[in-house]
């Protein structure tokens, strides 16, 4: 059966969702059911992402660099850092299919380097597939990884790892030439065996068009509603990220407000002495035991 499970209603326990596999993705794609993907970076965000029965894919994105580690861009993130976080994500993930970004510099040197590092992500990072940025130029890498048995999601359109050579984060595919290049890249990556292609920051017309031209699902971020699925950075959608908000981000919650006000209330309660409460938030000792302790302290000469 290909019917999507319904969201649990508040009075019912959540229905455990069957593990999402590449077959599940194909079924969703064939049924034109929009695929839901979200990033996660550690155990609690993986639990959060897994808490909805409707989450299909979890991405350990290299956005980890900015969102969790405070780097100015994704470019200085190391493979070891991705692996460390991916392992934590694996411990918190239930049904969703998992993907990790191959970070900048971990796959461009040679096909051999890419295979070595993708294998590390699978074995040590415990992810089920990898994603890598790039067009036709990375097709030989995609082909080899797929041959080895590592499913690959490609990533075209805006490629944040190229933000320096592109002079910033800019919408891609806005001209005839760049739109044509995007379609050609997408077809080449599909031929190389990618199971899906992520399309970032392109005009909605092009997002829908590339989706129509492919026989594998597209996952869009800033590519309009015409892609096979959508992805957002978890902190962007939860409103817990205070950095730049791209046009494509919708806030589905405002966690930063709730979180910061909680921190401030705590600090205030410490400052004014109202935390901790001596009754409900403290431990007690039997009073006779306490008296015997004080007597022993007097005998030691530590108390007069
Ligand atoms: N928190 C977060 N969310 C993301 O989506 C994200 C990251 N971090 N880090 C890695 C990359 C970087 N990404 C970005 C970063 C900036 C824009 C951006 O500023 N876009 C402009 C487009 C301007 C134009 O060309 O018209 C915008 O205003 O939306 C888009 C994607 C997506 N990724
Ligand atoms: C924004 C998504 C697509 C990503 O690649 C990331 O989180 O690194
Ligand atoms: Mg990324």
From TrEMBL:
Keywords: Methyltransferase, Pantothenate biosynthesis, Transferase. Pfam families: Pantoate_transf. One of its GO terms (cellular component) is mitochondrion. It comes from the Eukaryota. Pathway: Cofactor biosynthesis; (R)-pantothenate biosynthesis; (R)-pantoate from 3-methyl-2-oxobutanoate: step 1/2. The keyword DNA-binding does not apply. One of its GO terms (biological process) is pantothenate biosynthetic process. InterPro entries: Pantoate_hydroxy_MeTrfase, Pyrv/PenolPyrv_kinase-like_dom, Pyrv_kinase-like_dom_sf. It catalyses: (6R)-5,10-methylene-5,6,7,8-tetrahydrofolate + 3-methyl-2-oxobutanoate + H2O = 2-dehydropantoate + (6S)-5,6,7,8-tetrahydrofolate. Its EC number is 2.1.2.11. It is an enzyme of class 2 (transferase). GO terms for molecular function: 3-methyl-2-oxobutanoate hydroxymethyltransferase activity; magnesium ion binding; methyltransferase activity. HAMAP family: PanB. Catalyzes the reversible reaction in which hydroxymethyl group from 5,10-methylenetetrahydrofolate is transferred onto alpha-ketoisovalerate to form ketopantoate. Belongs to the PanB family. This is 3-methyl-2-oxobutanoate hydroxymethyltransferase. It comes from Coprinellus micaceus (Glistening ink-cap mushroom).
